[in-house]
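Holo prediction. Input below; ligand is nickel (II) ion.
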Amino acid sequence: MAIREVLKFPDPRLREISKPILEINDEIRELARDLCDVMYDEPGIGLAAPQVGVPLRLIVVDTTWTEEDAERRPLILINPELSEHEGAIIWKEGCLSVPDFESEVERSEKVRLIAQDLEGEEVTIDAKELQAVCFQHEADHLDGVLFIDRISRLKRNLYVKRRKKQLKQELEEA
Ligand code: NI
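Structure of the complex:
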């Protein structure tokens, strides 16, 4: 099983607006499987298709598998839409596409997510706290938005500087 590579900031493909999925075919089913593989392999609790270089509106989320029972129950969400935003919550976020960085981000505490599953059935999930944060974070990826866009400019600039230095070092060592 080949694991797809996760694109890392500042890869411009992370800034693209992903396209709606019009037909759930073998390609989409394979993409969903691959996204789950990458999410569990990294490990992470969510991943969006553009993070592996596929600009389509598909995300996978599993916010409970790292807990004690370790059971994997991935949500595969096609063309997700968020509504019914309520409240505010501050959560420390990280991202597989933003290496070596975490920061507190303010999000809605509750959201409703409506999407299609792999069978094309409509699913509605009323999420709160971590799951709501994760839905908002992954949905952002589909619009080319990263969590570092939602923190202070000062913090973002510090990270961007550090990241550039890191990339330069990697280049020099290669
Ligand atoms: Ni992310």
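Residues 95-97, 137, 141 surround nickel (II) ion (CB under 6 Å). That is the main takeaway for now.
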